[in-house]
Design brief:
The structure holds two protein chains of two kinds. Chain A is α/β, with parallel strands linked by helices. Chain A folds into five domains: about 15-105, Ubiquitin-like (UB roll) (Roll), CATH 3.10.20.740; about 125-295, 2-Layer Sandwich (Alpha-Beta Plaits); about 305-370 and about 565-725, Rossmann fold (3-Layer(aba) Sandwich), CATH 3.40.50; about 395-555, Dimethylsulfoxide Reductase, domain 2, CATH 3.40.228.10; about 750-850, Beta Barrel (Barwin-like endoglucanases), CATH 2.40.40.20. Helices cover about 30% and strands about 20% of the residues of chain A. Chain A is built from 28 helices and 33 strands. By secondary structure, chain B is an alpha+beta fold. Chain B folds into two domains: about 1-30; about 50-160, Alpha-Beta Plaits, CATH 3.30.70. Chain B has five helices and five strands; from the N terminus they run H-E-H-E-E-H-E-E-H-H. In chain B, the strands form two sheets. Chain B has a three-stranded antiparallel sheet with strand order 2-3-5. In chain B, a hairpin with a 5-residue loop joins strand 2 (about 75-85) and strand 3 (about 90-95). Classes of the chains: A alpha/beta, B alpha+beta. The structure holds iron/sulfur cluster (3 copies) and FE2/S2 (inorganic) cluster (FES). One iron/sulfur cluster binds near residues 74, 96, 103, 104 and 105 of chain B.
Chain lengths: ~850, ~170
């Protein structure tokens, strides 16, 4: 974990300055502030309004230092070190200054500590104790900011679904407003009135409900901002902190749980700043997501289906039934009849145990972790997997001068990277380009936002390549070759085909060609596309044309907490000769059966060629891109084991349901999208009878008569060997043919459906977190104002979305940020299963949209 | 021979002397207190079982801040806060385990709201351990107590700082 006192040197400075502080001479980079320099030298300067990730404002004056030749005390957070400067941080004058500032800060601060939730971790409490007077000299009535007509004695107001503000306690450090603006680009909180009456409040008519709002509470130095999650629940000194990792995002945000041991309960999550990953900011999903673990809806005991009804059973019974049926199916019909799907959010040990369970105990190659994608490639050597396996460093986004986001709704998929992109623009003036089928954040900081036709990702990328070639920016690429491989003669044709202006395409091409350090991020809209291989090929060409690998980074980012681990531990059906050989040498055996991926397994199940499946933490009925297909397939199975935290559509179909422990209940290791290995401590002991996936699978294997490991050491040693296999694939040296399948047309359904995560949700479990439901509790259809006007609907109305495979009815949300030909629907809500509208065979899911008149 | 003489003297002289003492006390005012029929008054600073105070308008003083529990050397206090309808903080659960309590009075000293204090009662025997865990309801009862002089000082401080006090 990074130290909070690290000296942050502004990028691109090499000049240094030498100064003296408390008699010590030190050299620091030019542009460093006195406060940062002092912290770097281990000298603490008290402060309220300074935050390492925000620009200094000098609002609180707590960081006073004495600088020789300057008549008055100076604020160290906003004073840059200069050559020959002589600084004192502990002189009498400074101490006196600090005392006076504390006294001044306390002028209107109420004596609220007994009722204040910040008590025990409050900067004002601590600094008053360390630097303040014992007594106050001000014997007049304090100013109280009261909401008219509210009978509370505490003057608290709710300014967002999760945030409570007490303006009396606020010391006006402006950290919340600054973080909201500088780091998150949100303007739902502001400072109003003047002088003594200045107050922080939600912007008129708005709620503080942006996807990063929880951070405001965390950085508030006093108890002015508190969240309902933690409010009045427990005192901070009664909790222990447990270091963990966020399981909802792929960057592995570092978090810590505040746990009460005796109650076996987590009370909140805060950040554990890691400058390489998260800068200390958490998205609200990360912050409140822990609540699902403590949901009363968790599965409590194993269930066994008896006479068509699931009844509670003991673990022994459930495992015995499961093992007996699995062995029977494995031995009777030959081993192709068992398949398994695991969630890419599980930890390494569970994923590896799953792999070995399937391949050794079940002797089957039917293993997959990709349940939510359509038309999966079966081997790993396709252009998509080449682009997805590239090295990527989150922190390098900061320093890139050109950032291109392709097919990714960053704020919804990769909140940490989203903030990095904003930071690069804010602090580094980087140029940001967005290339998406719908307008996405951070469009407000983008130099150019290109919204192409739905299902034309690879054409847009090809257009950029062609434009570069036409302008002579692509050296060493044969023009004819490029034309034939992309299938377009001119950039203008390609631009036209994807609905973009040539001039926009040229601007992007120019920026990439001229950029010194480039980051190109591709995301879920690529991964979820049926044409992921064609888009992958276009990305390979983009790399070839601009030489991106030589001056930056480009990758299709993994989406789940341990997608990278799943790939590296071999959870795909066809591993290729090298990987399979490595596994065979470790296990002494490797199944010979034909490898089947998720699609193939479900198809086989529908044809009753697959008899049993084991699902660990996945809910295909909810996330597979064809709901009915998945449901029918699972229904036809002779035997289905589902391990999950909650009862889902999938567990309802299962013959044996096993309660799974969540990530906060056991120790686990995860690879983030950079391939960084991080471990998560358990916050609490498993609730009810839940067990970790690796434990379940090991006992199951034992009961099946083929124990997997002699002990944990063996498992870890095997994993270590497997992780030595390098699955990174180099960029191809030549151009690749971009060959998408022809697009289907559906004339009567005219709006393209794009499904994804709501900014406050991730996957199908976050619905169980009350705080997140407070932000967004039901699915909606996000429409452009024009489309809404055409359909004659407004906020409060509902629309019916229809496709060949199904229909759903959802309320409308009108948004300026969406285009006329697309509709966005979150996929996180069981009540509105949006995957019933999509088909795994289609590239773009056209839907018919109509008003529901009630 | 001398042994016999000594015994004789004891019987003749010492025994009546001893009985004399008893006889003397028989007619004096007895010092034994006829507990439980009689009770002696406690010293003003005697620390007995705990009480929780209310404001004059009847609202509970305790805001469940946890400071008494933090100060308690015996870890005898357990509490769970809750939010009232108008957003104030108060105790949902407030329990003191009187078997653990060492009656040091630290909780009383720590309390910023003047909510908890040790009264003068010492009669809380029971025949099972659970009934020694005293709950909020048991402690919020009316109590015989003179006003603590400290309270006046605290009221003044509160007035100065604008913290709401009981009307
Ligand atoms: S609410 Fe907190 S963070 Fe915001 S200005 Fe006030 S004290 Fe600072
Ligand atoms: S009197 Fe002492 S031991 Fe008893 S509850 Fe109070 S602080 Fe704890
Ligand atoms: S210290 Fe006083 S106000 Fe705080 S919890 Fe204890 S009794 Fe209640
Ligand atoms: S920290 Fe320097 S003025 Fe607030």
């Amino acid at each position: 974990m990074a130290d909070s006192t690290k000296i942050e040197t502004p990028a691109r400075t090499v000049e240094t300055v030498t100064f003296t502080i408390n008699g010590r001479t030190a050299t620091v980079a030019k542009g460093t502030t006195v406060l940062q320099a002092a912290h770097g030298l281990g000298i603490t300067i008290p402060s309220f309004c300074w935050h390492p990730k925000l620009k200094p404002v000098g609002a609180c004056r707590m960081c006073y230092v004495e600088i020789e030749k300057m008549p008055k005390l100076q604020v160290s957070c906003a004073t840059e070190v200069t050559n020959g400067m002589v600084v004192f941080t502990e002189s009498d004058k400074v101490k006196q200054g600090r005392r006076a500032i504390i006294e001044f800060t306390l002028l209107n601060h109420p004596l609220d500590c007994p009722t204040c939730d910040k008590g025990g971790e409050c900067d004002l409490q601590n600094l008053t104790f360390a630097h303040g007077y014992d007594d106050s000299r001000f014997a007049f009535q304090k100013l109280r900011k009261i909401e008219a007509g509210v009978p509370s004695t505490f003057d608290d107001i709710k300014i967002g679904p999760e945030i409570v503000l007490n303006r009396n306690r606020c010391i006006l450090c402006y950290k919340c407003v600054r973080a909201n603006k500088e780091a998150f680009g949100e303007y739902d909180l502001g400072a109003f009135e003047r002088g003594n009456h200045t107050e922080i409040n939600a912007a008129p008519g708005q709620q503080v409900d942006n996807p990063f709002s929880g951070n405001l509470v965390e950085i508030c130095p006093v108890g002015a901002l508190t969240n309902t999650d933690w409010r009045y629940k427990i005192r901070v000194w009664l909790t222990d902190q447990k270091a963990s990792i966020c399981p909802f995002t792929s960057s592995g945000t570092n978090i810590q749980f505040y746990v009460e041991r005796h109650k076996n309960r987590i009370f909140r999550t805060t950040g554990r700043r890691n400058d390489a990953i998260d800068d200390g900011w958490l998205s609200d999903v990360t912050r409140y997501g822990y609540q699902i673990i403590q949901s009363p809806d968790r599965l409590k005991t194993p269930l066994i289906k008896k006479n068509g009804k699931q009844v509670p059973a003991t673990w022994d019974e459930a495992l015995a039934v499961a093992a007996a049926r699995l062995t029977e199916i494995r031995d009777k019909k030959g081993c192709v009849c068992v398949g398994g799907l695991a969630s890419p959010s599980l930890d390494n040990a569970s994923l590896y145990t799953f792999n070995k369970f399937m391949r050794v105990a079940m002797e089957s190659n039917n293993v997959d972790y990709r349940t939510e994608y359509r038309r999966l490639p079966s081997s790993l050597d396709n252009p998509y997997d080449i682009a997805a396996s590239q090295a990527f460093t989150i922190a390098d986004i900061d320093e890139s001068d050109v950032i291109v986001v392709i097919g990714s709704d960053l704020v919804r998929e990769h909140p940490n990277e989203y903030l990095r992109v904003r930071k690069a623009e804010q602090f580094n003036r980087s140029k940001v380009f967005l290339l998406n089928p719908l307008s996405t954040k951070p469009s407000d900081v983008a130099a150019l936002e290109l919204v192409h036709k739905p299902g034309a990702e690879e054409i847009a990328i090809s257009a950029i390549c062609l434009a570069a070639m036409e302008s002579g920016w692509a050296s060493g690429v044969n023009a004819d070759d490029l034309k034939s491989k992309t299938g377009f003669k001119k950039a203008a044709d390609a631009a036209g085909a994807c609905g973009l202006d040539l001039i926009e395409i040229q601007a992007v091409a120019r920026a990439i060609a001229e950029g010194k350090k480039i980051t190109i991020i591709a995301g879920e809209l690529v991964t979820r596309s049926r044409e992921r291989e064609a888009i992958g090929a276009a990305l390979c060409n983009l790399n070839r044309v601009f030489g991106v690998d030589g001056k930056g980074q480009m990758a299709i980012l993994a989406r789940h907490a341990n997608s990278v681990g799943a790939a590296r531990l071999g959870l795909t059906p066809d591993l290729g000769a090298g990987f399979a050989g490595a596994l065979k040498s470790i296990w002494g055996q490797y199944p010979e059966t034909p490898p089947q991926n998720t699609d193939a397994m479900l198809a086989a199940a529908r044809k009753e060629e697959l008899d049993a499946m084991i699902l660990v933490g996945v809910n295909p009925v909810m996330i597979y891109p064809d709901r009915e297909f998945a449901r029918e397939a699972l229904d036809k199975l002779d035997f289905l084991i589902a391990c999950d935290l909650f009862e889902t559509e999938t567990t309802q179909l299962a013959d044996v349901v096993l309660p799974l422990a969540g990530w906060a209940e056991y120790r686990g290791e995860y690879f983030n999208l950079e391939g960084r290995l991080q471990s998560a401590e358990p916050g609490i002991a498993p609730l009810n009878e839940a067990r970790p996936a690796h434990q379940i699978l090991e006992s199951l294997a034992e009961q099946c008569g083929s124990p997997l490991f002699a002990g944990m050491d063996q498992r870890n040693a095997e994993m270590e060997k497997i992780l030595k296999v390098d699955i990174r694939r180099p960029w191809p040296t030549g151009l690749i043919e971009v060959k998408p399948q022809p697009q289907e047309t559906a004339p009567e359904r005219t709006v393209a459906l794009i499904m994804g995560d709501d900014p406050h949700h991730s996957g199908y479990l976050t619905e169980k977190a009350p705080s997140l439901v407070g932000f967004c509790g039901e699915a909606y259809a996000e429409l452009s104002p024009e489309l809404a006007a055409k359909l004659k609907v407004g906020a409060g109305d509902s629309v019916r979305l229809e496709a060949a495979t199904g229909k759903i009815i959802v309320p409308v949300r009108v948004s300026e940020h969406i285009d006329n030909d697309v509709v966005f629907v979150p996929r996180n809500f069981m009540a509105a299963p949006v995957n019933s509208l999509v088909s795994r065979k289609q590239r773009v899911d056209w839907v018919k949209i109509s008003k529901v008149s009630d | 021979m001398t042994e016999i003489l000594k015994a004789f003297v004891n019987v003749i002289i010492k025994m009546p002397q001893g009985f004399g003492v008893t006889l003397k006390y028989l007619f004096r005012k007895p010092v034994t207190v006829q507990y439980p029929k009689q009770k002696i008054p406690m010293t003003p600073r005697y620390r007995g079982r705990h009480y929780l105070e209310r404001y004059d308008d009847g609202t509970e003083r305790c805001v469940c801040c946890g400071l008494c529990a933090a100060a308690c050397p015996a870890d005898a206090i357990y509490m769970e806060p809750e939010e009232t309808a108008n957003g104030e903080r108060k105790a949902k659960v407030y329990e003191i385990n009187l078997l653990r309590c060492i009656f040091c009075g630290f909780c009383e000293e720590a309390c910023p709201e003047e909510a908890v204090f040790l009264g003068q009662d010492y009669e809380f025997s029971a025949d099972n351990r659970n009934s020694f865990i005293w709950t909020k309801d048991q402690m919020l009862v009316k109590h015989p107590r003179k006003e603590n002089p400290l309270k006046r000082i605290i009221r003044r401080v509160r007035r100065v700082y604008g913290v709401p006090t009981a009307k």
